[in-house]
Amino acid sequence: GAVVSQHPSRVICKSGTSVKIECRSLDFQATTMFWYRQFPKQSLMLMATSNEGSKATYEQGVEKDKFLINHASLTLSTLTVTSAHPEDSSFYICSAERLARGSYNEQFFGPGTRLTVL
Amino acid sequence: QKEVEQNSGPLSVPEGAIASLNCTYSDRGSQSFFWYRQYSGKSPELIMSIYSNGDKEDGRFTAQLNKASQYVSLLIRDSQPSDSATYLCAVKEGDYKLSFGAGTTVTVRA
User: Fold this and answer.
1) Which end of chain B is more exposed for a tag (fewer CB within 10 A), N or C?
2) How many Å apart are CA A88 and CA A70, to the nearest integer?
């Protein structure tokens, strides 16, 4: 499989601060990356699709000014949670898309970032 | 709206048995199908992808796809306690984003 890293793995911050999460594809180039959020005992919720060199596409209900996404290179996408509040506490997971054999793309997930806002 | 349905479980099987997981999807245009395994507190891990009707085997895992019935399944043979996890079915139409099922929790009893 392909390797996707995420940093940091865990962060605790005070309410009102901003937190940046990095997602890197280590052994392949990814023109498309995705950001998900997962609350305890719930399924993955797609927040946005990040395309290299262009603006991210946000899912309905996700505030683009609060969750800033930058996909500056083929191996790096960042998610910045601005003015974080306790309700933003969650498990944030990125995935990177790799072109697979047979021309269909596969998504590989990073290990996730657990955000706790106090 | 694309929908992916899975039995939520939990599915409990004895060690060494076959675990059978089912998934149905609503969008007939779907072209690629994936199974992810997610351990508690961890991120999903891709374990199988399938694009053509029929069976695809990889080690103890077999994925089965029937596009006419809009059905995809995953069999885990010789189940081990380490297979205890939540299994997510994911469906994709062309280059579009993945649609995930809610997941089936599997518990393998030693």
Assistant:
1) N
2) 19
**d(CA A109, nearest CA chain B) in Å:** 6
Q: Residue B6 forms beta bridges with which residues?
A: B23
Is a pLDDT exceeding 90 seen at residue B23?
yes
**Residue of B3, B6, B32, B43 best to disrupt the A interface, most CBs of A under 10 A:** B43
CA within 13 Å, CB half, B106: 30
Could you tell me the pLDDT band of residue B1, with boundaries at 50, 70 and 90? Answer: low
Choose among B76, B74, B70: nearest CA to B18. B76
Nearest to A109 among B43, B101, B103 (CB): B43
Cα distances (Å, whole numbers) of residue B26 to A9, A46, A71, B72: 35, 19, 32, 12
Q: Do A106 and B34 touch (CB under 8 A)?
A: yes
Token representation of residue A76: 């790096």
Contact A46 B43 (CB under 8 A): no
Amino acid in position B22: N
Say whether B46 and A107 touch across the interface (CB within 8 A).
yes
Q: Is the dihedral of CA B50, B55, B60, B61 positive or negative?
A: positive
pLDDT digits (tens, 9 = 90+) for A45-66: 999 999 888 889 999 999 999 9
